[in-house]
Design brief:
Structural class: alpha/beta
Shape: globular
Number of strands: 21
Mean pLDDT: 78
Distance between the termini: 108 Å
Strand order of the largest sheet: 6-7-8-9-10-12-15-17
Number of helices: 21
Radius of gyration: 28 Å
Helix content: 40-55%
């Protein structure tokens, strides 16, 4: 590659504008040793001292968003125009009236490898198109030679040239707005996976990096009322609130992992993982949720045996204390996480776990994805217990969850740490929010709010002692406008702030996809809600591959940005990736799961880049080991490496192609070279075809099993009865 004068000129111009005299980083050794020495700037992550400065008007936390986005910017994995151009995005709701189609054309400058042209289009509402034209198109666009204008850009189409990216040496865009009738989107949009290119980094993870998979008790165990287990809020939610779960399905039997622990450990051995993330069912251990009432000895024995078997097979258990299955009695008596008494009951339960399993378990997670627990359980009602306490329920639940986490951490620190030498953290799940236009302060601030209302809601109190300032400001202002005397967001006392601050040994991070974020004002008269408090709109690029289902979209570059954001925002904490994976829908049942292979390849590679950036990631947990019950989606979504035949009483497991691929990544501890990585894909797809044949024969085997288990015994019984009748008849005749 030869960037020559263009590269150096661009860097000198920016250095002069910034008042510095820095050398061009493209002619210095790259921190990503596996990449070419001279890179396009967009694929290069500068060191912190070389990081692009955000606009001076932005606040400290907005700088973190801008820095994370700029530091890890890589254009190739991204879809055309996905950088800063709103015109490539579609809004969630379509307009019944006139809409505008945005046609674009982009070309690369200063690359030295010729020009790369990309095209895209999307339908927007007329008002949104007007906003875009006013924002992106200056009133007097700079004169452009006719030869450089894209085809079809005439005076009627109001063309304008987008200069937002030129200062980074990336691309120059043309946008033309033309009215069209109808409300449809781009129906001819092809879904394709990104190809390997110069932005893919071939290299290995640090020695000792921990690879694993995960699951949760309620989703996989089954045996919902066996061996003394008490009911959970999800048992009640699925049994009594019909219509809340896909086809009214339940997890009563699920994967039957309660009876198949040995089988699951064999699957873990087949994957060659070094850790397995599991959760303990609170109602299986303490049926009523109150330790003083009763402790179920059979539940204690089950988890003790399971953990010991994992250790005997050189698999490290990472144990989650709460993965959404609150004992139903605590919900009935106290209102669940709406009641501050949960802090005490959860601490008693956690200390029981430390007492019984702490000598074997060295990594504890207090809560898994508390954002979903609070918002979906107490705001939208989509999850158990199904309450719709809009504008207050989620904030109250989160407040008590944060207090519970802090109390458990202090209990472990004071009572158990010296003896057991373990770590206690929390697992927070959040998508990355990318500003639609990184040159627009309002979009950057909107993306900041998205991140703070998602990740910062829990991470900020645990790391800094209090809620993010932007949450306090926005919720407080909205509460005042709604005529309330105080903010709907609860307040920590000074003592509580000091008590909560720093209560983590590691930060668990879950991530699935990315959203583009722009500002959208929600008037206070619309009523209180978490959604309205944020004043944002979430957008999806129509070119992003949706992998056969509506969520998640394949956007690997957002993962690297999120990890860099965590490093910048929270002081580079010890990070374990605790959830990352992709599902397929019910109508995409197959074992050759190419989409999951592409997802793993892209997201793990972006994590590797983040580690090279300096992010302190020590382990990765792919979600999940098995297909399982997926909450409100029932069994319609499948995240597992192993396909589970739920209609079969024995719940047989079959490996998907991604098993072989992930196993190779683990064995190589990364991506050694292009030839080897391509060979992995070939081996994986060849392996899955054999398993597909086995799965295709499953109906026949099932019928044969029915014949063996039902028909044959029935016929034998009839023969015996008939023989007895004949024998009786003969004896009577002789007498």
């Amino acid at each position: 590659m030869n960037h020559g004068r263009n590269c150096s000129q661009t860097w000198r111009q920016e250095s002069a504008a910034a008042g510095t005299n820095r050398k061009c980083p493209f002619h210095a050794p790259s921190p990503l040793a596996g990449l070419p020495l001279c890179l396009p700037r967009s694929a290069f992550r500068p060191s912190p001292r070389l990081a692009l400065r955000p606009p001076p008007s932005l606040g400290k936390q907005s700088r973190a968003v801008a820095a994370a986005a700029a530091a890890a910017r890589a254009p190739e994995p991204r879809s055309p125009g996905a950088g800063n151009d709103t015109a490539f995005l579609r809004t969630g709701a379509s307009s019944a009236r006139r809409q505008w189609k945005v046609q674009t054309r982009a070309w690369t400058i200063g690359r030295g490898r010729g020009t790369r042209q990309v095209k895209g289009q999307v339908v927007l509402s007329a008002s949104r198109a007007k906003d875009i034209s006013q924002h992106l198109c200056p009133p007097s666009p700079p004169p452009t030679p006719p030869s450089e204008r894209p085809k079809g850009a005439d005076g009627k189409d109001r063309p304008c040239r987008i200069q937002a990216l030129n200062k980074y040496g990336l691309s120059s865009y043309w946008v033309s707005l033309r009215p069209v009738l109808g409300a449809g989107g781009d129906t001819d949009q092809r879904k394709h996976f990104p190809r390997d290119d110069a932005s893919f980094y071939y290299g290995t993870f640090p020695p000792g990096f921990s690879w694993g998979v995960g699951s949760s008790a309620y989703q996989t165990e089954g045996a919902w009322d066996q061996d003394g287990k008490g009911p959970s809020i999800w048992d009640t939610f699925t049994h009594r609130q019909k219509g809340r779960v896909f086809m009214n399905q339940t997890a009563d039997s699920s994967c039957e992992s309660y009876y198949k622990t040995q089988d699951d450990i064999k699957l873990l051995k087949e994957l060659n993982v070094s850790h397995y993330r599991i959760s303990i069912s609170w109602p299986r251990l303490i049926p009523t949720g109150v330790k003083a009432d009763y402790v179920n000895g059979k539940g204690v024995k089950f988890y003790s045996d399971f953990i010991n078997t994992l250790l005997e097979n050189d698999i490290t258990p990472i144990v989650t204390l709460y993965h959404w299955d609150l004992p139903q009695m605590l919900q009935v008596k106290f209102g669940g996480w709406q009641n501050v008494s949960m802090v005490t009951y959860f601490n008693d339960y956690a200390n029981l776990c430390f007492e019984k399993f702490g000598d074997q378990v060295k990594h504890w997670i207090t809560f898994s994805d508390p954002w979903s627990v609070a918002k979906e359980g107490y705001e939208t009602g989509r999850h158990a217990p199904g309450l719709k306490l809009r504008g207050t329920g989620a904030y109250t639940a989160a407040h008590h969850i944060i207090k519970s986490h802090a109390k458990v951490w202090h209990s472990y620190d004071k009572i158990w740490r010296k003896k057991q030498q373990g770590l206690v953290g929390i697992s927070l799940t959040c998508n990355w929010g990318e500003p639609v236009d990184i040159t627009n302060p309002k979009d950057i601030e909107a993306a900041e709010r998205y991140m703070q209302f998602c990740l910062g809601w829990f991470a900020n109190p645990i790391c800094a002692g209090d809620y993010p300032q932007v949450m306090k400001d926005y919720i407080g202002r909205k509460s005042t406008e709604q005529g309330l005397g105080m903010s709907r967001l609860p307040v920590f006392s000074i003592h509580e702030k000091n008590y909560i601050k720093g209560t983590f040994d590691f930060l668990g991070l879950g991530h699935f996809t990315t959203r583009y974020i722009t500002e959208k004002n929600h008037p206070a008269r619309q009523g209180p809600s978490y959604q309205n408090d944020r004043d944002i709109a979430e957008l999806v690029d129509p070119n992003w591959s949706d992998l056969g289902c509506n969520w998640p979209h394949l956007v690997p570059w957002g993962f690297r940005r999120l990890l860099n954001f965590v490093q910048t925002q929270y002081g580079n904490p010890l990070v374990y990736v605790t959830e990352n994976g992709v599902s397929e829908k019910l109508n995409h049942i197959q074992l050759c799961d190419e989409w999951r292979i592409q997802y793993l390849k892209g997201y793990i590679n972006e994590m590797l880049k983040a580690i090279k950036d300096g992010v302190n990631v020590k382990g990765y947990t792919s979600w999940s080991l098995l297909d399982k019950f997926e909450w409100e989606n029932g069994y319609s979504y499948r995240y597992g490496f192993f396909y589970v035949e739920f209609n079969n009483r024995n719940k047989p497991r079959y490996p998907k192609a991604s098993v072989q691929y992930y196993k190779n990544i683990i064995s190589a501890n990364g991506f050694p070279n292009p030839i080897e990585v391509e060979r992995w894909y070939s081996i994986a797809t060849e392996t899955c075809s054999t398993t597909n044949q086995i799965l295709a024969a499953e109906p026949l085997l099932h019928h044969m099993q029915m014949v063996t288990e039902i028909v044959v015994p029935t016929v034998c019984t009839l023969c015996i009865l008939l023989s007895a009748v004949l024998l009786t008849f003969l004896l009577r005749r002789q007498s």
